[in-house]
Task: structure prediction
Amino acid sequence: MSQSVCILGATGSIGESTLKVLQQHPEQYSVFAVTAYSRIQKLVEICKQVKPKIAVVPACYQDELAILLKQHQLDVEILTDDVGLQTVARHPDVDIVMAAIVGAAGLLPTLSAVKAGKRVLLANKEALVMSGDLMMQAAREHKALLLPVDSEHNAIFQCLPEQYLNLDKTGKPQLGVSQILLTASGGPFLNTQNLDAVTPAQACKHPNWSMGQKISVDSATLMNKGLELIEACHLFSISEHFVTVVIHPQSIIHSMVQYIDGSTLAQMGNPDMCTPIAHALAWPQRIHAPVSALDLFKNNQLNFEAPDLKRFPALQLARDAMKTGGTAPAILNAANEIAVEAFLNQKIKFTHIPTVVEHTLNKLEHSVASDLEIILQADQQARHIAHQYVGEIA
Ligand code: NAD
Ligand code: MG
Result:
């Protein structure tokens, strides 16, 4: 029977890869809803291609979208803003939700999908970084299947014993696992000694992956790896102490799991998000993805090194925020979003990004993240402080 998919963030890089995978399996999957924050023309193209029942956009684009859909004789209901996003994420006709909005904006719709007990394919790592225990608890309570799309976490999931997902939280590795090796490409500045003058265009030019702007900058500062460290701790119920970051510039191994008997399992493949997306869509089955098989004779160099925490302090900030717990990861995430935006708008230097995050973490008292209100409040306060600080150093 065909399964019905809602794509939150359909116009983005992950949205695009998701559509590419779905296109190969028209009998197995249909697209029920798509959402976009901008690029309405691109959304219309998607609607032409997959004929969804519902499209969600900000209210300011509602009229423009209605006119364009009518021109193309497409019968698509339009919903708007946060209410629209949450409506499609928990819609009874939806089986699978691809959470591919970037940043904190994805938290509420992703949580709605989890609370509705959907199969949730999680690309939007910021949502889990912010809400951590709350999201994992909701997944257990509502029997949602929260499957990692982030390539590293998808790799770890493939290397772990199957029972690992949604394990009760102990903080310690279980079932013979000793530690997780989270791989990182090192980004475009792996070998750049002076990072003071690097530009947004240079930061967005990732050596191995083609991605949205925000995650590209995060990859360049290694904040992406920091966010992923926090993501791994929550997804696999493990404390940060058991997650080691390994720089692997070729991005052929997507992460590894070590066991107490000396085994190290790795998941490998060409760096293409269609693989983890196809895996999460069909798990525990396997389906074809439009990705060529790995040729080890062409990719015959696999290198590994430790991250340089002096040039990339964001990684340590994230590790410390995870250790602190409570609202600290939400504060880290919010300050980082503000700093990345300011860097992309050429208001601050690249090296200011971790400075803004550190300043915000030091300024704000963190508290227990016992409910969503507290998390959203910490997010707002952190944005305010980070904004102010950006104004001071700009
Ligand atoms: P992107 O910028 O290409 O796309 C983001 C999508 O979110 C777009 O559809 C956009 O319209 C929508 N969006 C942006 N702001 C929004 C808002 N305020 N409200 C509602 N929708 C909004 O980003 P991406 O690279 O596709 O990344 C999406 C998520 O997946 C991020 O959390 C990222 O960290 C994660 N991720 C991406 C990759 C990748 O290869 N691109 C890999 C792993 C994880
Ligand atoms: Mg990743």
In short: The first helix runs from residue 13 to 23. The CA atoms of residues 5 and 31 lie 5 Å apart.
